[in-house]
């Protein structure tokens, strides 16, 4: 009986969404450029824009320090008829976590942090209620047991009274023995890591200021932790993931993994959904992501804003040895640590079976080896392919998938790029 109810509910949801599916009849819009050797990527992107599979997105690639693909298309706001432009910013969701991993690695390089030391070494009040033995590495690799919080707190306190947030976090207890297994800290990752960075910083700056001064300004990276009000005018309008797109994604390339994710997101009591709504009060709905008041709050779990060019650039620097314009972002030693898995296998909540590192995920490339980076809710993806010296980024504000790192359109662009790369390396241009 329960199965029949579920099936009926899904069918009703699909019908409702299908009636809402038609959008304004706007002409296809596409901009950017590609290196001649990678023209196929442009054609695939253009086709998706024209057939309305891609409503608004950007895709970029750096190879050996050179920007070889930089495409944007569709609309940043369909209702307003506003086109996606070369400087459009979009919410990055959990792709933000990967950028934070780079920032933490920079702090390790500067001697402000040590992966092997206890979090309480930098944040003494953290070390209680079963959190005494949690290391920086455990926290970054989702092994701390802190994915689900006991109670919630107002997200606005991150700006108005950060000490109250710290006190809330200090009282939490791990859900499993830290270091024994892992489970994705969907929301709480940034809550804890942001405090850690502020405590470890000699100037005790907030994370948005740290990133601006240490990475964004020196290396010309158009990424923001929290959206400055001065940049609201160029931000895309967020369109939540619909049930239709979840079903399409699952059926388009069916796998037991995707089906498992679908069952968990349909169950509000699942461990994963508890983690997805942990930390902050329930008024933090998806509709709120179009509110400048929310978006200006810096939180490295998901409230990062950028574009594919910026993502590809920063990961391209990592993939190309850590240097850019005679400046060093990360040393080879730190890149090696960032590119080394820490934990893997099935997660505590049964949702994942992948390799994780110090704030990063390891995603398969079409060539079969692993990249280092981070996917994000709805299709966002950014990574460094250390083997091929490639930095890649993709963002969309029209969310199309739930599974991490396997958005249908992104995979098409990725496959086209690697096909061209193989020919390019052989001299067939």
List the defining traits of the structure above:
429 residues, single chain, 37% helix, 3-stranded antiparallel sheet, 15 helices, alpha+beta
Number of strands: 15
What is the overall number of helices?
15
> What's the overall geometry?
globular
Helical percentage: 25-40%
- The biggest beta sheet, please? 8 strands, antiparallel
Structural class label: alpha+beta
The run of helices and strands is HEHEEEEHHEHHHHEHHHEHEHEEHEEEEH
The low-confidence parts are 12-22
- Straight-line distance between termini: 59 Å
Task: Name the beta content range.
Answer: 5-15%
**Oligomer, anyone?**
single chain
| Computed Rg | 21 Å
Mean pLDDT: 90
Produce a short descriptive summary.
This protein has 429 residues and is α+β, with helices and mostly antiparallel strands. The chain has 15 helices and 15 strands.
Detail the topology: elements first, then pairings:
Blueprint: H1 2-20, E1 30-34, H2 39-50, E2 56-63, E3 66-77, E4 82-83, E5 90-91, H3 95-110, H4 136-140, E6 152-153, H5 157-160, H6 162-170, H7 188-200, H8 207-219, E7 224-225, H9 243-252, H10 256-265, H11 271-276, E8 279-280, H12 292-295, E9 304-306, H13 308-319, E10 323-324, E11 327-328, H14 332-338, E12 361-364, E13 370-375, E14 381-385, E15 390-396, H15 408-425
Parallel strand pairs: 6-8
Antiparallel strand pairs: 1-3, 2-3, 2-15, 3-4, 5-9, 7-9, 10-11, 12-13, 13-14, 14-15
Helix pairs in contact: 2-15, 3-7, 3-14
